[in-house]
């Protein structure tokens, strides 16, 4: 862009506004619960930042925190934290009327002049030098129709006008104005200013460049100390505008301050703009403006004319937004919950399949420490259909570690965990489709009396139907044998199955491989939870002391294992081979982490808190597995519930069926032969 060589009137790019839905939601709540018919002006806070894109200007933004909270008793001012580089706070005032007629009848000229006078007063008293953000104060008028969830509003950004107007004698890209040494130093100084929590959100500043081309950024209150030091001096400001030929709106009142306080006629200014969070002198502008003001500007009582009502599509009219669909709290919760996931797709994870996640039906077997954490993690990833199965009740020891329960759930004998968990999930996120099933899982090694066989078989059929109607199953129970039947049923129907199991300070998280009849692919299947066992699951609850009866683990273990279990599911859903994907190992040259956006997809993750370590392993399926082998699945397909009942009542049946009994005999025989053959004389021994 060539610099301006002849004088022309400075044309400022007007501020633009954007209002987050959360602002209207809090205003509605504030109106309903606290303000009532009180239409007194409300102090609010807007936020803006320097332009960060060569084709898009930044807006002054209103968020939920722009308004004071309902519980604020000492002050009605919105509480805002300072030091956020992307949120420079700007004071504003809100006039919210009670009727649409009152909104249209507001004296807009008087309201604008009243805010302009505040700026004028701040300039003359010196407040604007100490807190330069007041130079950009704004005004908002509104009417909230809470019956129709419709909001009428209009912004004004008061600006003092020069008579005659300020003229521009030079405007060029900052990279063309500074020498290479100066540009490097100015960029570094501005970045340092922006990265400091003390100055990141201070929008007006001085740039001083010494004869050695070294730049320093200072507060504008230091202007007097910078005089007569031989340094090049520029008045800088955070410019929200992206246009190459127009400085942004904040410069108007900044020039007024400079003219009144320091009586300068020529002002060299820097329109500071950024790219990816760093100073961009190719986007920033440096210009020189000439200011001629009347003698009346020295008089505090002489208020200049002001302008600043925001235009709507080129017209001086208010705006209207209808939030009838999104303003319902449940819908707003959905919008807020989806926001983070949608932002992931902007840059970090463009291939994130939100539809696959939201349509996934997940069955959680166990609503204890693991089940509670997994349910919450699933919701955070956008899963909306969650079914929890558990037969236990909430005990007094549960709420501290099981995050979905409170003391109220423990009273009167305790509510069923499956029921209480669903209520808690609905309170956390009303849009979740959660269901609780109170049911015990039939287990091998726990023989069933004849009079209870019908009930147990009914539970088996019910579990079969639940697994059949869901897309993914999490095995989160606290005994080994309770995972056997779900593993078998999942292998039979080829469901995504994920196991999480805890020790005192160790954990296992794994995904089960595909079922034995799921594919003609000759590659080795990944194993299930039982594939590495050489004995059938038996009763592990009998003859146990109190510490063995309870799930005694380090408190931090369950959240870690639960998070990894859910991440495994997300990885499976985003892998092109899905449930058939090979197991990958961390730091392996054969892993596909460089190809998959979510990284590797391991088979097993084993971790230890005592060592603060974690490793990924791969284990293939076993032909002798008591849960997922073709022998067991075939037997179940042929005999159905009769087979399950026999497996439950006869502890050695599964070992006999799968050949584990013969395998153990052969191992014992081999050990015996080895002992005989190695019974050597001392003279035959060799010391190593």
UniProtKB/TrEMBL annotation:
Subcellular location per UniProt equals: Cytoplasm; Preautophagosomal structure
Asked whether the UniProt record includes Transport among its keywords, one would answer yes
Q: What is the lineage of its organism?
A: Eukaryota, Viridiplantae, Streptophyta, Embryophyta, Tracheophyta
| Keyword line | Autophagy, Cytoplasm, Protein transport, Transport, Ubl conjugation pathway
The UniProt GO MF terms for this protein read: Atg12 activating enzyme activity; Atg8 activating enzyme activity
Please provide the Gene Ontology terms (biological process) for this protein: autophagosome assembly; autophagy of mitochondrion; cellular response to nitrogen starvation; piecemeal microautophagy of the nucleus; protein modification by small protein conjugation; protein transport
Domain (THIF-type NAD/FAD binding fold): give its ranges.
Answer: 344-577
- Lineage top rank: taxon: Eukaryota
In Swiss-Prot or TrEMBL terms, this protein is called Ubiquitin-like modifier-activating enzyme ATG7
Record's Gene Ontology CC terms? phagophore assembly site
Its job:
E1-like activating enzyme involved in the 2 ubiquitin-like systems required for autophagy.
**Family, per the entry?**
Belongs to the ATG7 family.
Active site positions, chain numbering: 550 (glycyl thioester intermediate)
Stored PANTHER family? UBIQUITIN-ACTIVATING ENZYME E1 (PTHR10953), UBIQUITIN-LIKE MODIFIER-ACTIVATING ENZYME ATG7 (PTHR10953:SF3)
Q: Where is the Ubiquitin-like modifier-activating enzyme Atg7 N-terminal domain?
A: 12-327
Describe its assembly: Homodimer.
Write down the CDD domains for this protein, in alphabetical order: Apg7
């Amino acid at each position: 862009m060539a610099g301006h060589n002849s004088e022309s009137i400075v044309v400022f790019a007007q501020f633009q506004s954007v209002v987050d839905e959360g602002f209207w939601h809090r205003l509605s709540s504030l109106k309903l619960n606290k303000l009532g018919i009180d239409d007194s002006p409300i102090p609010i806070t807007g936020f803006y930042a320097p332009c960060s894109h060569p084709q898009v200007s930044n807006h002054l933004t209103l968020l939920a925190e722009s308004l004071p909270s309902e519980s604020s008793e000492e002050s009605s001012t919105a509480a805002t934290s300072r030091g956020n580089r992307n949120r420079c706070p700007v004071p504003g005032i809100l006039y919210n009327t009670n009727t649409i007629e009152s909104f249209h009848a507001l004296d807009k000229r008087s309201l604008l002049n009243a805010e302009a006078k505040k700026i004028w007063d701040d300039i003359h008293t010196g407040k604007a030098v100490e807190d330069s953000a007041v130079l950009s104060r704004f005004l908002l008028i509104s009417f909230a129709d809470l019956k129709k969830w419709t909001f009428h509003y209009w912004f004004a950004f008061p600006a003092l006008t020069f008579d005659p107007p300020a003229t521009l004698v030079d405007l060029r890209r900052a990279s063309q104005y500074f020498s290479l040494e100066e540009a490097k130093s100015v960029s570094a100084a501005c970045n340092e200013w922006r990265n400091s929590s003390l100055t990141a959100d201070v929008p007006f500043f001085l740039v001083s460049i010494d004869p050695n081309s070294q730049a320093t950024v200072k507060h504008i209150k230091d202007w007097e100390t910078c005089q007569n030091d031989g340094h090049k001096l520029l008045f800088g400001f955070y410019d929200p505008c992206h246009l190459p030929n127009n400085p942004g709106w904040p410069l108007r009142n900044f020039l007024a301050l400079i003219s009144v306080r320091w009586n300068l006629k020529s002002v060299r200014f820097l329109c500071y703009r950024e790219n990816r969070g760093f100073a961009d002198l190719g986007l920033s502008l440096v210009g020189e403006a000439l200011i001629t003001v009347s003698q009346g500007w020295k008089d505090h009582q002489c208020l200049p004319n002001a302008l600043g009502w925001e235009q709507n599509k080129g017209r001086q009219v208010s705006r209207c937004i209808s939030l009838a669909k999104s303003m319902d709290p449940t819908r707003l919760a959905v919008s807020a919950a989806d926001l983070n996931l949608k932002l992931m797709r902007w840059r970090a994870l463009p291939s994130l399949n939100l539809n696959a996640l939201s349509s996934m039906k997940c069955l959680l077997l166990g609503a204890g420490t693991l089940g509670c954490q997994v349910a919450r993690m699933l919701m955070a990833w956008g899963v909306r259909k969650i079914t929890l199965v558990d037969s236990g009740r909430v005990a007094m020891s549960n709420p501290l570690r099981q995050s979905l329960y409170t003391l109220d759930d423990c009273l009167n004998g305790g509510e069923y965990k499956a029921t209480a968990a669903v209520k808690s999930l609905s309170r956390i996120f009303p849009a979740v489709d959660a269901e609780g099933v109170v049911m015990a899982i039939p287990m091998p090694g726990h023989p069933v009396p004849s009079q209870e066989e019908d009930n147990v078989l009914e539970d088996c059929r019910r579990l079969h139907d639940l697994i059949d109607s869901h897309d993914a199953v999490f095995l989160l129970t606290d005994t080994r044998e309770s995972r056997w039947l779900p593993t078998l049923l999942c292998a039979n129907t080829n469901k995504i199955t994920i196991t999480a199991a805890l020790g005192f300070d160790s954990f296992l998280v794994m995904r089960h491989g595909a079922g034995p009849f799921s594919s003609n692919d000759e590659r080795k299947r990944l194993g299930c939870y039982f594939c590495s066992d050489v004995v059938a699951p038996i009763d592990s609850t009998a003859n146990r002391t109190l510490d063995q009866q309870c799930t005694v683990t380090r408190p931090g273990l369950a959240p870690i294992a639960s998070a990894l279990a859910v991440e495994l599911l997300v990885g499976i859903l985003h892998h092109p081979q899905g449930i058939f994907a090979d197991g990958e190992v961390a730091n392996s040259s054969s892993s596909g982490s460089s190809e998959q956006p979510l990284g590797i997809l391991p088979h097993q993750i084993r971790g230890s808190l005592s060592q603060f370590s974690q490793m990924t392993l791969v284990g293939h399926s076993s032909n002798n597995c008591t849960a997922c082998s073709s022998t067991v699945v075939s037997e179940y397909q042929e005999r159905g519930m009769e087979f399950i009942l026999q497996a439950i009542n006869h502890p050695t049946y599964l070992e006999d069926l799968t050949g584990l009994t013969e395998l153990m005999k052969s191992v014992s025989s081999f050990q015996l032969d080895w002992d005989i053959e190695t019974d050597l004389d001392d003279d035959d021994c060799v010391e190593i």
